[in-house]
Amino acid sequence: MPSEHLPSDGPEAGPQVERRSLLRLGALLAAGGTAALVPAPVAHAATRGQGSDTVTTTYKGRSPYGNDQWAYVAFDVPAGVQRISVTAAHDASAGILDLGIFGPTGFRGWSGGARTGFTLAASDATPGYVPGPVDPGRWSVILGPMVGSPGGMDWQVDVTLHQGAPLPRVPYDILPAAVAGRGPGWYRGDLHLHSRHSDGQRTVDEIVAAARQEGLHFIATSDHNTSSTGVTWSGNVPTDLLVINAEEVTTRHGHWLAVGLPQGEWVDWRYGPADQGVFEGHARRVHSLGGLTIAAHPLTPAPGSFWEFGLDRVDALEVWNGPWTLDDAANIAAWHVMLCLGKRVAAVGNSDAHSPADAVGRPHNVVRAAALSTPAVLDALRMGRSYAVESAAVTLDFTARAGAAVAGPGEELPLSFFDAVDVTLNVTGAPDSIATLYTEWGIMAATCIDGSGRGQLRWRGWGKASMFARAEVRRPEPASTTLDQLVAITNPVWFYSARLPPYDVERRVLFHTERRPDGSWSGMRPLPGAVGAASFAGVQSALAGMADGSVVVLGVAPDNGLWLTTARGSATLQPWQRVAGPDGSTGFTVREADVAAFPDGTCQIVATAMDGTAYHQLRRADGGLTGFRAMPGSPATSRWGATKVAITAMPDGSAQVLGYGTDGAMYHCVRGRTGTWTPWGRPAGYGGAPTFAGPALAITGMPDGSSQVLAIGIDGIVYHQLRRPDGSWTGFRAPRGVTTATMGASAIGITGTPDGSAQVVAVGLDGRIWHNARMPDGSWTPFGQIPGPNGRDPFPAGQVRITALRDGTTHVTAISAG
């Protein structure tokens, strides 16, 4: 293409910077207040070349400290000018100077901080700038100073006007809207790619070649703040690859991808969240043009890159941007919270490739579209009918079934409340990885994938007990800033409409009830919340009965923060306390937590962090916490990773810990009275299976030194077994259900009582809490329903826990499902 090789793309061009560094160059800058869009304060130097065909005017100025400001150098262009050339210089030690230009008819180009100069004419333009007639009238060079020096930043702009014979205007090719002959199917594509039209180092031809090499079917060229990429295709449009025109709208308050713009369309970036309705207006315009809006790398912790317009105001979130980092892990955590709130915002993964060292298509999206066309691909992405993978070697098949109905990512499975839901993930091309299934209740199942790269993960849920299910595949190998690497992530299969959800996280309240020694229930009551709230909103709970008759309660809030209080009945005895992380940080977040009480008045707490690390700490008798420490793994010098964890106190002062490891299998270990840990062992599964896997587990110690384990298998059925005092296991058996031979459940709890019985609670297939007991002789009482707040009607719940006191009472906490 003729515009790809011009003088200002050579020695004058700005220094090449690694793409992740570009995102963080602004980190030294404190965000300044929004500046008015006013002409720059300039001093005019003597104009050179007056009376000749080449006239140059120098403008000098100074911009103050700040990140969010724009300045405009206005100049008049007389008739007969055929080319404009601009060069800029600034004090690089003081900050960055972005560069662009507007003509009498509007936008004509932008290069940000990637170049120090450009030229444009009817026949050609520096990449990033739009070739076209040089109309007479008022033009303006736009400067975007990002000034980190308190003393400000000096800059200079030279504008050269070239007169001469008219130059021919070069037409551009129209990108086809579809690839011929490609009907419904799964298609692979990367939506975030940079060429030499912004701060990338590839030509569009080189991007196309790299996309073909990766096995992609579509790409979107999304250069920063410019429309020039779309109007410079000439004789090189591929016929085998769908090219979608796009722009990365790079504001000082977050970047977003406007994907599917008509060629030549441009989206402004000069606004912030305080400019009411401006972002929304641009998003509506993109939608009116048939396009898609995506928040790019939304949680990148750098001024200008961090997304400030609201994560629910876009069609999709770029949760995975280039090589896997801690930023991406934060993106996924934030996206998951949105899903739990019923917000159907799709997730995408893109390479954001800039330099030849950045692999195009790693990661990329695999989209189920009606055709290989721009409208069909964008519609599928908007609905979330896609998953993201690290490379073309990886393929997923993720489905949920209920009877004859089948749904995949981005689709809704029609369900009645009592339907069994079977979710299956088949993985190929992901050797030595771990597949994990999530609902809004956390991790429900996990399994290891061996060196063959092939594996299957299965889980059974019940009706509308969960809002959605989604899957991830990760490789337990360190990346640059994380302990693992993402291999693939799916959009969720939805189990009911998020527009009118039966319940949502914000309405999930922690309730408490007490079962008296005579078997009667006190009725469900919400526990008072933190900081004066009427109730505690949460997604998980755990509790432990103390010797003094109080109950220590843990609550996991919707943001996954871990909180602790002490209660007596339905009243809290002390304010909720946010439990700090292993480094003392108050922002510590967990997936699961459990607590066990000991006769000396102490407690032990276990928790799994968001990265899967399992932690343990003591709560002293005076209520002080010793701080979390990572639990030893195998070998003991390593950390233990788990998706679920439970703990119980034993009569001899030891603690037994049960967990599902990151491979999905159940493990058990003992912490002695002196603080030593035994190696982790794997109990056998049901019916002679080598391991047991499932979405939930619980453990309780008994007065005779045995312990009892309750778990839900991947088939959704409740299983129970006993660990004898000598360490041997009886093997898993399935207790009888309410009216059936087995008990299907989505949540469980178990506690031992002084008389040697074990009290069990379960959220059944009907979403209600049921209770029964295993007697000392091994027999089971029938299941009975736990009443709701009025003492009569059933109580719908999503999660449940139980503990016992010395006087024979039992206490139950439950997260409401409505």
UniProtKB/TrEMBL annotation:
InterPro entries: PHP_domain, PLL-like_beta-prop, Pol/histidinol_Pase-like, TAT_signal. Residues 516-788 form the PLL-like beta propeller domain. CDD domains: PHP_HisPPase. It comes from the Bacteria. Coiled coil: none annotated. Transmembrane segments: none annotated. PROSITE patterns: TAT (PS51318). NCBIfam families: CehA_McbA_metalo. PANTHER family: EXONUCLEASE, POLYMERASE_HISTIDINOL PHOSPHATASE N-TERMINAL DOMAIN-CONTAINING PROTEIN. This is CehA/McbA family metallohydrolase. The lineage of its organism: Bacteria, Bacillati, Actinomycetota, Actinomycetes, Kitasatosporales.
